[in-house]
Amino acid sequence: MYKILWKECLRGKSLFRSLHNYSLKQIELKGKVIDLGAKNGKSSYYRFLNVENVTYVDFYERNENIIQIDLESEFPLKNNLFDHVILFNTLEHVFNYQNCLNESIRILNPGGKLHGVVPFLVQFHSDPYDYFRYTHQSLEIILKRAGFECVNITQIGTGCITCASHLCSRIVKFKPFVFIIWFFAIQIDKLLTYLWKNNKNYYVGLSFKAVKPQKI
User: Fold this and answer.
1) What is the rounded distance in angstroms from the CA atom of residue 110 to the CA atom of residue 148?
2) Within 10 A of 215 (CB to CB), how many other CB atoms are there?
3) Least C-beta-crowded within 10 Å: which of 50, 116, 124, 140?
4) In whole angstroms, how far apart are CA 198 and each of 61, 194, 203?
5) Looking at the domain assignment, is residue 142 inside a domain?
6) How far apart are the C-alpha atoms of 17 and 88, rounded to whole Å?
7) CATH no. for residue 39?
């Protein structure tokens, strides 16, 4: 893990983004995939995902490789088109989040999967707007309301020291020192969580996976 964190740190990625990218290194998305949060394959997570057949989405840019979709409205797509929906660092920018999830499950094939990630402790970042920070409890409710099952939510960057290092290291310009901060923060939190169970309630972000039922 630390080898990947080191490389991502040198690329200027945050601890949250680096840990998320690390979690994707063995994921293979077979079949048709739609990425609701990227207009191309240049996002850093594509260096870790094993995926080939991807459709990209953007509301403000249009070309032959991009579908123009307003995530707050009905998607201009037929039912049961994709095997996977990617929703990385996107849901916090969608005010009508329930519509986005309802439409995501609609365009998935039965048994298709939604893969998402959201920040929890991160600065305000408008793209073009920034609305929400989700807890694990709220994610579970809104995913199940959309009709998803087998909801699996995982913390990214657990522990109060790790959270502090994620926030504070953004002002440090010397990348090797940033990595040292990350390394010791993670190690300290492993011990702290053993001694103080509430430490696991601090996290930088969340990743989630959910499945469209075979029959709805």
Assistant:
1) 10
2) 6
3) 124
4) 44, 10, 11
5) yes
6) 10
7) 3.40.50.150
